[in-house]
Prior knowledge:
By secondary structure, this protein is α/β, with parallel strands linked by helices. Helix content is 38%, strand content 15%.
Amino acid sequence: MRKIQMVDLKSQYEGIKDAVNVGIQEILENSTYINGPEVHRFQANLEQYLGVKNVIPCANGTDALQIAMMALGLKPGDEVITADFTFAATVEVIALLQLTPVLVDVDPATFNISVEAIRKAITPKTKAIVPVHLFGQVAPMEEIMNLAKEHGLYVIEDDAQGIGADYTFSDGTVKKAGSIGHVAATSFFPSKNLGCYGDGGAIFTNDDELAHTIRGIVNHGMYERYHHDVVGVNSRLDSIQAAVLNVKLPKLDAYNVARKNAAKKYSSALANHSNIITPVFSEVENSHVFHQYTLRIVDADRNALMQHLQSLEIPCAIYYPIPLHKQKAYIDVRYKEEDFPITNQLVEEVLSLPMHSELDDDQIEFITSSILAFLKK
Ligand SMILES: Cc1ncc(COP(=O)(O)O)c(C=O)c1O
């Protein structure tokens, strides 16, 4: 059996090696390192894939979130609601821009932001909601968009983990994650479902005016060379990363199917065990692209199980071990423990298993049988 990796980028590279090497070699020959044709090609390819009018590439997913918030003109003191159970980048940029983060609890079945909790957190100062498509599952966008419309709020999708997933509205309309809110941000960090070989990110929007603002912000606030009309940043996707992404984008759906197949195999082996809650997802809709496959371990020692798996060289991880409202940087007297019962419980129970496009049946069998053997004890 091949050594099990949490994310197996090396094996994935083997399948695309020639195309990636040619793409990178071309850039080395042409010296078009910044803003080369590969970047424009990727932007157009991704616009087509997502069905979104504007993709603006940038340096990473954290920048993408920050730039989206800058472009919306959010001002210090404006409240931005996001999930307590997610990676810190989301709340970090809210705080950096001196906006007021408002963390809310999540849904125990999907781990995604709770619409009820959002509703309760809205005040006259609320300006935006940032749903995160956590672990690859699309947040309840129809309800969130309706709520946002009712209260005149912006919706910024954090699509760092959900690229390629679909969302089906109650009237049957299907849209890609990242094409639903007013603006969306994604990351091409290597381990992401669509990852490059360094840092990368992008902002998506169907609003042409907002896209124009964003194109200036990513480039030092310039709309005309050396005319700095707004305060901007320097945030670029470099051509070598775009060349990698141009090879990987046409394979994204196949990579996501491979992830989903692995998830189904995990779930069929692990469902029906009283100590395990397997992730909820619809097989029909492509609403989960399994950036992570995350179990809840209940009435059993999750940490001992994790150590046991690691002793067998099965990598696994706790995403995320500490709720954001308890992180030193984001502690605030406004937060009450009773407002976060689900996140507080999830951080004690979650366990993410190896998840990538290259998992094989022997590896999945070894992982699941090792979990079951441990829990039987
Ligand atoms: C949910 C979420 N948002 C934002 C980010 C930030 O992306 P990046 O690492 O490219 O800055 C990540 C990446 O880890 C993420 O998982």
